[in-house]
# Entry
Amino acid sequence: MYHKRDISWLSFNLRVLQEAKDPRVPLYERIKFLAIYSSNLDEFFRVRVSALRQFQKMDKQERKSMLDVKPKKELKEIKKIVHQQQVEFGIIFRSQIIPALREHNIFLLNDYQLFSSAQKQFAQAYFLEKILPHVQHQYISTAVDVPFLKNRSLYFVCRLAQSDELGLVNIPSDVLPRFITLPADEHQFQVTFLDEIIRANLHHLFPEGIQSAYSIKISRDAELYIDDEYTGDLREKIKASLANRSIGAPTRMLYDSSMNIELTQQLKSIFGLSKNDLFPGARYHNFSDFFASPAPTHVEGLYDAPMPPLPHPVLEHADSIIKVMQDQDVLLHFPYQKYDYIPQLIAEVAQDPLVESIKITLYRVAKDSSIAKALVQAQKNGKSVTVFVEVKARFDEESNLLWGETLQKAGATVIYSRPGIKVHSKILLISRREATQLRNYAYLGTGNFNEKTSTLYTDHALLTADPRLADEVADVFRLLEEVPLEGSFQHLMVSPVNSRRKFVACIEREIQHAVAGHPAWMMLKMNSLEDTAMIDKLYEASQAGVQIKLIIRGICCLVPGVPGLSENIEVVSIIDRFLEHARVYHFANAGEEELFLASADWMTRNLDRRVEVVFPIYNPVLKQELVEILHTQWADNVKARVLNAEQDNPYKAVSSGEAPVQAQKEIYFKLRTALETNK
# Structure
């Protein structure tokens, strides 16, 4: 018994929408969650729906032999769920967000008729001076000159007076702000959409007159279909195919639901769409633009209270991070603690005359990466720098390629994606000449080497010189340089070499303990749980009496609480101000508890088709620190939702008299208190 992958993902995105609905969340954070929901859904259509469309094109018999999914049936189910969610989205925006804005004297004017005379004059001047140079308009019909609609771009389709043709106008939100602050009374903050100013001035473009105007948006296939990944220069193929992303096949046309059926059918015919491509929406599209929603500066409480990253109690005042690592392992928790130490470490070893080489895996690189800059400097200082750049990291291909080329020009050895496999591990190796031998220092993390996401994603990172771990990190890098991918690891789990086998062994060990009547449990935290073989193993463990607690942010194909199958499995999901990204695996092991951090979820791709690293935490103090964080997350009764068979995302029940626990805040305050106590 399994939940469908894509349906489970839609359930996850519904949890994001719940945050926008929650009155306990500050108003502009609720608006941000609307933007996240919208952005997520766009990507879902560009990637997952695109994949289902491709499956439809396969030979029926071939499809049946390869896939469990029925694309046509699933696309129909997706459309139904998305429609329900879009209705809910509209209700939240119109009935909750807009009135809440008004309570703060913030007015989003969505009708030109609501503008004052001064605002109408401003809007017309703004259109003529700022907007008009970026607007293209054209006439369209069913017969000739079908225009190409850019991916995710906004357009007006206009019914023209005294003409059978339609008018098409772009809304240039890619070059102009989507929201325009209007002149208003000092006690009010008034904003309108770029769309609204264009709508009011369409007569400048079509002098014959406008009967009506409706907004539309096309989402296009974002997959990079590379015919043969196993031959030729993969980097060049990726680079060449990036341009195809903007011209991929349409996967959704979102249109204003007030548009009549006749016009909808006309557009369907003009653009060669199927009925499954048509999705009614609200008056405005691209709610992801709400990330840049303007706010008055004088109103308090619109955003979450600041949680500035904390200094690490040891690293903050250390003269040398390497010297600290010689004496002890260091564990960092982002974004609760500063990320600055990582580029600082690379900058330090770049200047260290004893350091001979630096090796690193880069999966998603920030556009202005201080880490990449430090690596360039290390190479210039004569260190041997080897960088594994993953160019198949979806939507970050361009940035990764840019930094790969920059590092190459500096003289670093850059190894790009290996055909057929992604390098998703987050590891760094520093080799330092000490006395007569090389000593290895390692960074092992759950998140990317990315300064931007380190402020948004919850992750853990271990800095260690423990030879049990650091020397095996060196073995991982040797593995990456070899074909085929082979190796032997005693302490690390490494996909695709041994992680599946070792994870299964951990579960089987708990089963044996349960059968023998000993305490047996596991607490696992990951982004996604999709691999059916691992799910089956968890079902087996549940039936044997193993108590299983799962914290799953996104996709969860496991169905908990089913009598005779999974009654000993509980699952929660935490959606809060930070994106839960760390993977943590904690096993009872008959009192000798084992705890692992990882870059890998339990998805088939992470276990079999990616290079991932799972690493144990041996230091008992650091292990206890992680256990406390994990238990705090499980205790969350403010932002935790229960994942169940119905996938309806109820909030975790709070018992009478039970104190509220919001895990992310609790973890931050605990770390801050510990810091202050140790001063």
About this structure: DSSP finds 18 helices and 26 strands in the chain. The mean pLDDT is 88.
